[in-house]
Structure formats: structure tokens, C-alpha cells
TrEMBL record:
Key words of the record: Metal-binding, Oxidoreductase, Signal
Organism taxonomic ancestry: Eukaryota, Fungi, Dikarya, Ascomycota, Pezizomycotina
Pfam families documented for this protein: Tyrosinase
Highest taxon above the source species: Eukaryota
Signal peptide: 1-22
Entries under PANTHER family matching the protein: N-ACETYL-6-HYDROXYTRYPTOPHAN OXIDASE IVOB-RELATED, TYROSINASE FAMILY MEMBER
UniProt xrefs under Gene3D superfamilies: Di-copper center containing domain from catechol oxidase
Descriptive protein name: Tyrosinase copper-binding domain-containing protein
GO terms assigned for molecular function: metal ion binding; oxidoreductase activity
Coiled coil: none
Record-annotated Tyrosinase copper-binding domain positions: 115-132
Length: 384
């Protein structure tokens, strides 16, 4: 299947912005994981946020480690969100057919600002938090917010709890459709996966997507969204599980390289690809494990696996911060994707783009730099 450069492969070809850091303080605070960050936040914004305590902290878990009933409670909550009406103007956003698709539309609207930019990691961290809170407040979900452990499932995608297709999974592969190799760029392609068609198993069998793919060239060239971006384009959810992508870019060696990155610039390269090279990197590789629409930088949120995929990305980022406490409040990148048009470097004081109606309160990047301070109070079950 020819995707050309309409995909995450272009992440590997993007321009790398400059590095900016904030001077750490030596003030101590309650967190043992983010002492530098939490001390900086307490000094910068005293009393702004409710303290995170052992009594209030949430633990995010590996999907595969959760009991079957816990997994089903999570997918039931996602389907509950999808049963809620859209809160967006239907004359502007006909593709927003329900509250879940409101999240997908919001992601499309902010894609150019929050990818390949200095907002990427922290904007998505809060976006995940907003969805997690929505599951609780709108649908009464009380369980853990799970992550999909990419390297742990790389050698056996179909046998993992995530993709085994049972009622306790995130649904399985799509029906097999032989469309040939996946061509990402003139110098980068990967073999076809094991699916490509409609997902007909598990809790998201029959799930409908509502937006067509948008070429990543719109990001790279700094173009506004096409007029048809939010036109209703309803279709079955498709997947194309790709073991080659999983074993090539999302293995334990790749994970270790990311976690041992000496600075955030190197970390960004490890997760998003090698400049001008043939590597997708950990994060972009994970998107190509699942195929379209999950491999589209704009509309990937339409597939519910997006949330566990990005929760693991946040786990990788969090673990890198914990491993490098003196660098944990470093920022990297500019205010625009691939710095097109040229923009200022993002700092801890830079105000984040908004999250639509889900998160109207303004936050700086620094507000979102710690998982145990600011608006957050969560940890992961295992530090990577």
C-alpha cells in the first residue's frame, strides 16, 4: 500500500530545532522521582496546584498485566464516551459524530502546533490526562489508565492481550487485504502487515471512523488544513498489524537507546526518527505497527489504540526524566512543527496550545513537566 510521505515516516525527515533548558534549583519537595522539577514548580507557582500525595496518586498499568475484567471495564468506558453526543458545531465539524470524535477533531486542529515542536511531549501528556478524567467523570471509570508496552508485544502481536481480538482486548487485526508493501518515502518502505481491512473482532468491531487521512506534507510545508478536513467520511476502523515495524523500531534495544539519551534532542531523535535516514523511531514505529488510520499523524486518534500507545510514550518520557533528574525540566523545540514558519524556542514559561473544550484552562509547558506536580498526580506501575 502506497502511503508515500503522507505518513509518520516524514517525522524522520523533519528539521531538528534548537535546545533550551531551564536552570534547576536545589530546593527539595515531596516527589522522589522529579526532585528538580518539583522544586522548580514549587518555587515558580507556589500554591497553584493541589499537592500530589500517596493517597491521591493514580497508578497507570501495562494493559497486558491487567485482569480481563479490568481491561473490559476500560474499553467499555471508551465506548461509553463514544455514546455521548458531540459538543462541537456540526456545521463546522460534521465528522464530530460523538464525544469521542470530538477528541479526534481537536487533535487534527492542533496537529501542526503539537507535533515536531517543543509542545509535543507535554501537550500530549495533558491530552491523555483530560481523556482519563473524562472516562471517570462522564462514564464512571475507576480503573487504571493502561499503556500498550511496545517492545513486550513486538514478537507476538496477535498473541498479546492488546491485540488477541477477544472481548478483553483492544480488538485485533483487520481482515487481510493484499495491497503490497507500505511505501513511506523513496528510500523507506516496509512489508505489508497481516491485515489492512476492517476490524471485526473484540470490543471495537464495527467501530466507525469519520475522517479521511490528511497528508503530512501539510505539516512540513506549513499549510492550513484542507477545506475537507472535517467533512464526514465514515468508514469501518481498519488495522494492519505489522510485525516487521514492531521488531525493527519498537524492540528493547531501541527503547534502551531512547532511555539512555544524553539530552532531550537525542531523545526526540530516538522516538521520532533519524534526520534524513531510514529509521522511524520508537513512537512513529509504533504507529506503523497498527497501520491506517493509526499511522496518520493527523487522524490517528480515531483508533482507540491511540490512547494506550501514547500512554506508553508518556511512560518512556517519564522514565527518561527519572533517569536524568538534572535534565527533567529541559525543553526542546520551537512553537511550530519543523519550525515552519520560524518561531521562538519553547521554554518552561511558554503557554501551551489549548485542548479545545476539554481543557480550556491555560497551562505553561512548565506546569506539565512533572507527573506528580502541577495538574497531575500519577505514576507508572514499572519504571522502564
Amino acid at each position: 500500500m502506497v502511503n508515500s510521505i503522507l505518513s509518520f515516516a516524514a517525522l524522520a525527515l523533519a528539521t531538528v530545532p534548537s535546545l533550551v533548558s531551564a536552570a534547576p534549583t536545589t530546593e527539595a519537595w515531596q516527589s522522589t522521582d522529579f526532585p528538580v522539577v518539583d522544586a522548580w514548580m514549587k518555587h515558580k507557582s507556589p500554591g497553584k496546584f493541589r499537592p500530589c500525595t500517596d493517597e491521591t496518586i493514580k497508578i497507570r498499568k501495562d494493559f497486558d498485566s491487567m485482569a480481563p475484567e479490568e481491561r473490559k471495564a476500560y474499553t467499555d468506558a471508551i465506548k461509553c464516551i463514544a455514546s455521548k453526543p458531540s459538543q462541537l458545531d456540526q456545521t463546522i465539524y460534521p465528522a464530530a459524530t460523538n464525544r469521542y470524535m470530538d477528541y479526534a477533531v481537536t487533535h487534527v486542529n492542533r496537529t501542526r502546533q503539537v507535533h515536531l515542536s517543543g509542545f509535543f511531549l507535554t501537550w500530549h501528556r495533558y491530552y491523555l490526562h483530560l481523556f482519563e478524567e473524562d472516562l471517570r467523570t462522564e462514564c464512571g471509570y475507576t480503573g487504571a489508565f493502561p499503556y500498550w508496552n511496545w517492545p513486550a508485544t513486538a514478537d507476538n502481536l496477535h498473541g498479546s492481550a492488546v491485540f488477541d481480538g477477544s472481548e478483553y482486548s483492544m480488538s485485533g487485526d483487520g481482515e487481510y487485504v493484499d495491497t503490497g508493501p507500505v511505501v513511506l518515502a523513496p528510500t523507506l518502505s516496509l512489508p505489508h502487515g497481516s491485515g489492512g481491512g476492517c476490524v471485526n473482532s473484540g470490543p471495537f468491531a464495527g467501530w466507525q471512523t469519520t475522517m479521511a487521512d490528511i497528508p503530512i506534507t501539510y505539516i512540513l510545508q506549513g499549510l492550513p488544513l484542507p477545506d475537507t478536513a472535517f467533512q464526514l467520511n465514515q468508514s469501518c476502523l481498519t488495522r494492519d498489524l505489522n510485525t516487521f515495524a514492531a521488531q525493527t523500531w519498537c524492540n528493547y534495544t531501541a527503547l534502551d537507546l531512547a532511555l539512555e539519551s544524553a539530552d532531550l534532542a537525542e531523545f526526540d531523535t530516538q522516538i521520532n526518527g533519524v534526520l534524513g535516514g531510514g529509521s522511524l523511531g520508537l513512537h512513529s514505529g509504533a504507529h506503523f505497527i497498527i497501520g491506517s488510520p493509526g499511522s496518520s499523524i493527523y487522524v490517528s486518534v480515531q483508533d482507540p489504540i491511540w490512547w494506550p500507545l501514547h500512554t506508553f510514550l508518556d511512560n518512556v518520557y517519564t522514565s527518561w526524566q527519572i533517569r536524568h533528574p538534572d535534565l527533567a525540566n529541559i525543553t526542546f523545540g520551537t512553537e511550530t512543527a519543523v519550525n515552519v514558519p520560524p518561531s521562538a524556542n519553547v521554554t518552561l514559561d511558554t503557554v501551551e496550545p489549548d485542548w479545545g473544550y476539554f481543557g480550556q484552562e491555560l497551562h505553561t509547558v512548565g506546569d506539565l513537566i512533572s507527573t506528580t506536580a502541577g495538574p497531575f498526580c500519577y505514576k507508572y506501575d514499572v519504571q522502564l
